[in-house]
Amino acid sequence: MRSFGPKIAAAGLVMALAALAGGCTSIRDHRGYIVDQTLVDSVQPGVDNRLSVEKTLGRPTFVSQFGEKDWFYVSQFVKTPPFGRPRTSEQTVLRVRFDPKGNVVAVDRRGMEQVARISPNGDKTPTLGRHRGLLEDLFGNIGAVGAGGMGGQGGPSGPGPNGS
């Protein structure tokens, strides 16, 4: 009679390793507008206007706030490694430009060259001025001339902002 113990243990070990390896894969996520190239190609400068673009592509991700009121459609694919920060792996920005009458002038497309990689300056933001400790923050105003609430000049019972 044969023993199945070692085979079951080996199969269990293989399954455990597969489960651990599966937990170490990156998560790929889509954010924003889903680009359908056929619909984008159907928007024609000089033919379409704001209403027809909205019916074809949908509402824009955002509209420019300054200058011409261009419409932007933003699509991103983001990868998040295990125990890591999300990183943009693909990006498409469609910009639909209109003339003052609301007709399409051009449809521009940009990619990853628009992604800015910034690195913050550590855990603290440098500021100008004095560096005070906790005790100085808590008790630094005690005994200051004209401190608020003390009834002197500038206090709640003192003169108002116009000197009266």
UniProtKB/TrEMBL annotation:
Keyword Membrane recorded: yes
GO CC annotation terms, alphabetical: outer membrane
Keyword vocabulary terms for this entry: Membrane, Signal
InterPro entries: BamE-like (IPR037873), BamE_dom (IPR007450)
Signal peptide span: 1-21
One Pfam family here: BamE
Annotated protein name in UniProt: Beta-barrel assembly machine subunit BamE
Domain named Outer membrane protein assembly factor BamE: residues: 32-105
